[in-house]
Amino acid sequence: MSPEIAIRFEVLHVPDCPNLAPMLDRLHEVTAAPVRTREITTDADAAAFGMAGSPTLLINGVDPFRAPGDCGCAVACRLYRDHEGRVVPAPSVGQLRRAIATAVRITVTTAAGRARWERGPAAARVNAYPARAGTKKVTAQAS
What we know:
12 strands; three-stranded antiparallel β-sheet; globular; alpha+beta
């Protein structure tokens, strides 16, 4: 049996955001877990939900790409930088895998010779396993 962890994905976006599709496409490359989308239309909602431009990915309620101290919540476009510093519409597949791995924080303990995985708050249940050498892929499991 593979280890299970709790994780939830939400993408905040403005209406007709041209960068929403690339974000969702790349997320679906790294996870089969459900991805919730939320349309944001006011600056007040952007601040309340933590949208630092559209699209904003939240993993378990946290924006893994927000710079420390950045409070630029607004109904506006958001651009990302790839590993070479180029402006792109969404994080790369590799950047998303790293963000998920950081958010997952799995603790392994052994009891009676078996590994036990501790989980965070209830959300989508997923399995984490190596997809390729040096990477992780996260797939959904029905609860």
